[in-house]
Amino acid sequence: MIYRWMFVLLMAIPGAAAPLAPESARLLTVELFSTRSVRALTVTPLGSGSTRRVDGQPALQPMTAPLQVEWAHDGLWLSPETTVKQLALSGGFRLQASGAQEILAAGKWTIAWRQDGLRVLLTLPSEDYVAAALNGETAPDEPLASLKAMAISMRTFALVNANRHGAEGFGLCDSTHCQALRLGRARPEVERAVRETAGETLWFGGQRAQVYYTQQCGGMSESARSVWPAERANYLAEHRADPYCLRRSSAEWHARIALDQLSGIFRAQGWQIPFPAESIRVTRRSAGGRAVLLEVTGRGATAKLSASSFRFAVDRALGWNQMRSDWYTVSVSGGVLEIAGRGYGHGVGLCQAGAYEMAVEGHSEAEILSFYFPGSVTGITAADHGWQKVAGIGWTLLTTDPRAGLLVDGNAAWVKAQSLLPSPAGSTGPMVQELPNTELFRQTTNEPGWLLASTRGNAVFLQPAAVRQNNGGAETLLLHEFLHVLVEQEAGEKAPLWLREGLVEILASPAEATRATMDLTASEVDAALAHPASAAASRRAHLAAARMTAVLCAHYGMPAMRGFLRNGVPSGVAETLGPVAQP
Hints:
By secondary structure, this protein is an alpha+beta fold. The chain folds into 4 domains: 2-15 and 387-567, Orthogonal Bundle (Neutral Protease, domain 2), CATH 1.10.390; 26-199, no CATH class; 203-251 and 343-380, no CATH class; 255-327, no CATH class. The strands form 6 sheets. Strands 2, 3, 4, 5, 6, 7, 8, 9, 10, 11 and 12 form an 11-stranded mixed sheet that branches. Strands 1-27-28-26-25-24 form a 6-stranded mixed sheet, with helices on both faces. Strands 14-13-23 form a 3-stranded antiparallel sheet.
């Protein structure tokens, strides 16, 4: 459950403006189904806020029922009477295509016609993208430290390569050419890894780093220059032993390919290779031992062939796990090419198997990144040192600026909150994360930028100090959020939202609560609190909840109210209030 608290709409502050979105958090446009041709989609809206717009319509229209979209020679077929070139969607949707894994995601969508099928583009926040990449690229049992190291690496890659496919009309694809995505609800460990590294990327020499990662390096990393000659980053320049990944697995693999089958692959590629191929040998290797150049012999003639081109051609024809890397030896026996290899992937940068093992052995995400990208530093900008954890009295602060005075205000707020509503024995104190900019606050909380803070369970998220300073002191704001944490620790499943919000309001500001006007019913208050249309609507709902709770508290007493919080409000109690007028 997410709870909202704000003082005023940001645009109403004289001389203040919402901070510009920094590059640490931005929108990314991704092509979905990028490795396959899709000619029919079932698009199902998820929730009441889903909308659609087709060619010629001036605005988005509500969408409540599934829609079948099919490719036709002259456009997108939506119904017997409707053929369009493009369909725009906004909100949460489930997309299903034959033979493909279904996609569940929220954002801005474009489904467009192209000659070979449907093009599906999704524009989503970069933090949501990182969660989807972690879902797609990491192991289901990945430890938290390696999840966080991967989150920082993936975010770095995404922001550096945000326009990798710009010439094609989008930014990134959803395949391993960019980063494989698995959209949908992320597991809690992934959500935590994204949240606790929000906005963090790798930097080198004042610039965001160009990063790579590989599934299993086979015990020896490869220099980026060996794979991509134009890449000259110092932190990727050396090949060196990786003892960690070999403790996890040897990563050995084997492949057998008939020489006449290889000749067919070469012919399909249009390569000037002797036919039929009789033998293949490695003639040049990288410093790390990976094949760089091959020599193919047939009928007395020879030809040189790039090892990476050879691997991609074989995998494209026979399956992407046929040749797992360029680190191998070859031999010919009985008209068959025998390949014995090590490692999975190109071997450059972070080794996922090694990072996993480092995390299991107790290394932090900082130590993992330092091992695989030596000399690089982690930060939200080039000028900070990333997230730093500071212990308060009974609570913890996660901030990029530990020098600020938030710790003192938080200690005072926690002491006061505990005096008003003591926490249950054995409960964990709050974690307060002070986001450094409004866009990162929006993306981390999925809340509008006019909120000053948001609480989810035991976690409290704050707008940056520059936004908060014109809206009252941090102690008052943190008292409110800490009370939300304490209320949630005590609340049962049957406690309505108006009661949870109302208790916080009457404990934090009892005088304001007794003066508030309540002209809404309990169900109307709950609806407005859950989905406020504006800052004014949200504040009205908070005051109504405060007034309702204050009236009930005056009648039943605080012990009874805490019983309602644990067990639910008895039938008829809230309804007897009706809309309660101002006293």
